[in-house]
Amino acid sequence: MKLNMLGFAVPIFLLFMLIEFLVARSKKRPYFRLHNSLANISVGIAERLLDVFVTASFFFLYDFLQKHYGLFNISNSVLLWILLFICIDFVWYWYHRMAHTINIFWAAHVVHHQSEDFNYTVSARITVFQAIIRMGFWAILPIIGFPAPMITSLLLVHGVYPFFVHTRFVRNLGILEYIFVTPSHHRVHHASNEKYLDKNYGDVLIIWDKLFGTFQKEEDNEEIQYGLTHPLKSHSFLWQHFHFCVEMFYAVKKQKGFRKKLGVLFSKPDAMPEGTRQEAEKALLSKYKSEEPALQPLSRYVIWQIAIALVALFFFILFEYHLYPAQQWLIAICIIITLINCGAIMEQKRWIVYLELSRLIIASSALLYVYFNPVLILLALVTLIIMIYYFDTIQKHYLKLVYTNVDQS
User: How many Å apart are CA 56 and CA 64, to the nearest integer?
Assistant: First the structure.
């Protein structure tokens, strides 16, 4: 049986997150906050899930570009593997720098910087949109002549390293600080302090930042504030992914003339018109109860949903080659709805009932697709009719169960 061994990356990275959490708790360090960590992991689940559908296409794209447009016929050798690694990291630096200085790229990358915590769960905050954009930047490599198998193999290795620099426990690493991106360097990159903004773009090697003037050392007398300069204050899965796109829409709408409208897309994030965030929030995001602590039943329900989504993700990736496209899409939709649902619950939204119903319908459809049976179909239809008929009653009891003693505005 052919298995996708990349599925084991899910429990391995979760293990490191758990270890860091236990160390933080034993040392009484406030490095983890429940809802922030759940939001971080939710974004990571979605990215790993959707990557299944896009990663293979990039291999074929790179293979096509190398075979038809490759400038050189690069063969397999140790020196060329090293050269390719350096090229990958160099391209990453410029992609990353542009992702912070051009709005259309920042719209995909901003999600990674939203967390006001800094721990291993933050490394999961990568969207599939960001993955697609950076893969586009790396398309220069097959045009140079590097074969697709070499590129994709090294990209896997290159993608593991950044996980380990998202921690506050590792301090100075001595001589390594001069060559590699270290946790200290990356803490600076995630800081919203004015002194630290737009610094340390490197992924594995810090030498690019030192060459191109974007390096900043972590100062002992400068306490780091993590997150965005204007905190998002929302755990909504959808809002975290698309808030900056909405802000750009309102910014473009305000501009007169095509050139100025286009300029918004390619200008720097800090050049966005003042009040754009507030306008977007007023239009699409209701008041967020940031001061109200979530009750234990609410938190446990979200935790269980995230845990089930992680298990589903693990088996989905592991048995990817044995699932039909329809099965893959049904499972993927169920997981995405679960993630949206968890974010909405943390925001205490009433419309989660519709998500629960849609998830139940899709899950039932997936089950019937695998085990086609007329009796089961009839039972599912009768259940659906009953649920629709008594929807108001079901909604009332469900919200009371989920939001015990919590205002459901």
Answer: 13
Phi, psi angle pair for 274, to nearest 5°: -65, 140
> Nearest 5°: phi and psi at 205?
-100, 135
Contact call for residues 387 and 394 (beta carbons, < 8 A): yes
Structure tokens at 242: 């698309």
d(CA 95, CA 207): 16
155-159, 182-186, 199-203: least confidently modelled range: 155-159
CA angle 324, 330, 331 (to 5 degrees): 90
Question: What is d(CA 22, CA 6) in angstroms, rounded to the nearest whole number?
Answer: 25
C-alpha to C-alpha distance for 117 and 226, rounded to whole angstroms: 6
Residue 189 pLDDT: 97
Residue written as tokens 């506050």?
Answer: 168
Contact 402, 301 (CB under 8 A): yes
pTM of the predicted model over 0.85: yes
Q: What integer best gives the mean pLDDT of the chain?
A: 89
Residue 40: which pLDDT band, with cuts at 50, 70 and 90? very high
* Distance of alpha carbon 173 from alpha carbon 182, whole angstroms: 7
Q: What is the mean pLDDT of residues 241-253?
A: 93
Residue range 304-321, pLDDT digits in tens: 999 999 999 999 999 999
